[in-house]
């Protein structure tokens, strides 16, 4: 902080108007924040272009701005959050640049998984069809037992198909930085399995032109059984194992301390990270950089203290003793910055409440100006012509009286960056259409909602960096700490193990509930 | 006046002798007692230790025999005629005090001021 100019808060207050001082404070705050954000990395390194331009509080847009950085920022070890399911084999070559034509890369994974499962499903049919096609005449006739096997084969294939669709063909939610171990394991297993079956088939059936068709059908049926069991394994490993809670994760946002506790099961670090981020978007209130720091005027008081420089080459004991005394005297001087903070907080609260009251009244009044037209009401008598409006026009009509109060309120609570006029109008239109009361309309503005509320849907997804000292495919355990970083804030996650519960039993006889009065008698003797 | 269970109770006591007064058919002493091991010790306003279940003097009628003998309100009665009063029920205490055959009850009572007086006087004497 040495290169910041020191000014004494008192002169500032007296000579400049209040609003310009606030504006300056806001700018100073952002300047220092952007300089302080530095890159650090344990396993992953992120390089940022030096500082954001002087952000005016009016132009701060939460998460949205970060996505536009993709075109101009070079990020090392970027991991984009959305997309790709069974991709991981392609993750061997890590992409170093996050560029917008990332779309095709998302779908390589599902494509690969799809091919493999298609291959696996078609194999039994191929086993059955090939002998028929190639050496039909030489085959032993196979009557009822074969037909029974055909039926069972058909149903098992159908079940496999439906359950594969239900379990695996879902749009993927995240790209993980490293292999998803279980998924890779399963894919390798399926591939080896089917390949070995084909090998055996090729050597034992195709070569010698096996005549026993029933054996071939049974062989195909056994393959389908085995595939069903592998799918059961997949179900347990991917979906069921992590359902029983085993760890408690504490997630803290680094900028303002918002925190939550979650219970998760046995997951690897990267899967746990995806899990936490899912919950982050709907549980945490939106990150508002404008609400962060104490005003400069309060903090600067501390900095105006004595600075003692010793100009002698050999400082004698006397001088150090003297300087120490001066420093002690400065420290003992009463530090009133906490007082200022308290009063400023109280003042801020009062201001917000006043504006909120005005807003609520304005909105209530505005809503009384329109009412819904029912179909059976007669469209208008010539004496009282009424203009029939659609929701958009109705919204525009009643927006004008409340616009000013709304704008003032949003400015006071520093939310104006999140709500544009257009979005307020759209929301008003939405509320009118659904017969909502003014209170329902205001719910969105009176309390900061979860981050999900402010997201724009674009296909590119959100960029998060997982920072961890352990390899990210290792399992969670007690005492682990990792963090999820975004450009201007990060979430620090601490893992604790849920305690082992020793549940005992105690039987209480329902007849054993008895009571007596408390005695306090006084006897005269 | 607090005690440690299992250890002997040590207290500074005052010996008070009260002659019963004949009032009609009864012999009265002129004070009321409260407390006892079957009572709720938390409601005793005179005890220092709210788990003390001893017998306390809760009221003294003015000009009665107890008042004249020097009994004060809030005194804890330790013995009555040699009978222990520290671990008795309320009713037993009453019985020990109202025996028809006895004219005189000799009480050992303790109060905080006694302890303090002894400490105070101890302090004055030079150590031998």
TrEMBL record, chain A:
Stretches with biased composition (Low complexity): 70-83
Localization: Cell membrane
Source organism, top-level taxon: Eukaryota
Coiled-coil intervals, chain numbering: none
Database matches in InterPro entries: VANGL
Keyword terms of this UniProt record: Cell membrane, Membrane, Transmembrane, Transmembrane helix
Compositionally biased residues, Basic and acidic residues: 34-43, 58-68
Membrane spanning stretches: 107-129, 149-168, 180-200, 220-240
Pfam family, one: Strabismus
Region of interest: Disordered: 1-90
Protein name: Vang-like protein
Species: Parambassis ranga (Indian glassy fish)
Protein encoded by which gene: vangl2
TrEMBL record, chain B:
Top-level taxon: Eukaryota
Gene Ontology, cellular component aspect: basolateral plasma membrane; cell junction; cytoplasm; nucleus
GO biological process, one term: cell-cell adhesion
UniProt gene name: tax1bp3
Membrane topology term: Peripheral membrane protein
Protein name in the entry: Tax1-binding protein 3
SUPFAM superfamilies associated with the record: PDZ domain-like
Chain ranges of the PDZ domain: 15-112
InterPro entries attached to this UniProt entry: PDZ, PDZ_sf, Synaptic_Scaffolding_LAP-MAGUK
